[in-house]
Specification:
The structure is a homodimer.
Chain A: E1 3-6, H1 12-25, H2 37-46, E2 50-55, E3 61-69, E4 78-85, H3 94-108, E5 113-120, H4 124-132, E6 136-147, E7 151-161
Parallel strand pairs in A: 4-5
Antiparallel strand pairs in A: 1-2, 2-3, 3-4, 5-7, 6-7
């Protein structure tokens, strides 16, 4: 049984290793692959509106996600999230659980839509998962992501309204 | 004859009134309509990589634009710009001049593409102008902009590669 809860002081040392690995891979996150711990801490704990962790039965943290407004001012009713799952815990549906959880949290905070600005096109597992969870492919940004191994690859803009429009 | 040059200390008092008016209108810029001067100064002079002004024959500043990376890290080769033209100087092609200028500047800085994340769909003059200048409509974000008069309206994602892909 997986549980998802808010980040607590003391969780960071469990998140950092798999977040670091995911960023260093340079195949899914926009953050620079050589981001320092201070950079990652800022991205994951300071900049977001909220940070969450997914815990396995034994309490071990196996995933984490952040939630924040995607734009300022007149675009601030649209949020965005970033999700990361520990390498050894992939394929168990933790990404799905976290994305569903994040939509409920976002709606409760008053956000009306969720947007992913830069889904890496070669990360087709992610694109398919977000589609399965109701996100539409808004369009393709040619060569918008500098993939660490493949060079410039396309990025996908994805979007889902989480509150029924007026 | 319009000239476009880098922002210089002393230009701000000429830019502030028309930038303030454009933001307050709440029909084109994401910035909150009640942005303070400090907010506007941050958005226009601190956050951007560079700020430019368009000057009329007599040296009066009639427009301004900013240029910056649109994303961090592996998305930082794509830039974005925001343009503003003084109300009394509209319809003279200053937006076109500034956009063409910005593409040259961006290419010289090493950017490979330019993206507008949130072009307000009801601002059809802007959408048509960017299309005329080679930007493609990547897609539509339903209800992504909270227009001051019209409420939630669609936003358009626009994109142009300014360097020929490898």
């Amino acid at each position: 049984m997986m549980t998802i809860r808010r980040f607590q002081e003391g969780d960071w040392p469990q998140i950092l290793p798999f977040l670091h690995d995911a960023v260093e891979a340079g195949d899914a996150f926009a953050a620079a692959p050589d981001s320092s711990e201070a950079d990652l801490r800022h991205d994951w704990l300071v900049a977001p509106r909220a940070t969450y962790v997914a815990c396995a039965d034994d309490g071990a943290i196996v995933g984490s996600y952040i939630l924040k407004a995607n734009r300022p001012g007149l675009g601030a009713h649209v949020c965005t999230c970033e999700y990361v799952v520990a390498q050894e815990a992939r394929g168990q549906g933790i990404g799905t659980l976290m994305c569903e959880h994040s939509q409920l949290e976002a709606a409760a905070m008053g956000f009306r839509a969720m947007q992913f600005d830069l889904v890496v096109s070669t990360n087709d597992r992610a694109v398919r998962l977000w589609q399965k969870l109701g996100f539409a492919v808004v369009g393709i940004l040619p060569h918008a992501f500098r993939h660490r191994r493949f060079g410039y690859v396309d990025a996908v803009v994805m979007y889902k309204e989480i509150v029924t429009p007026d």
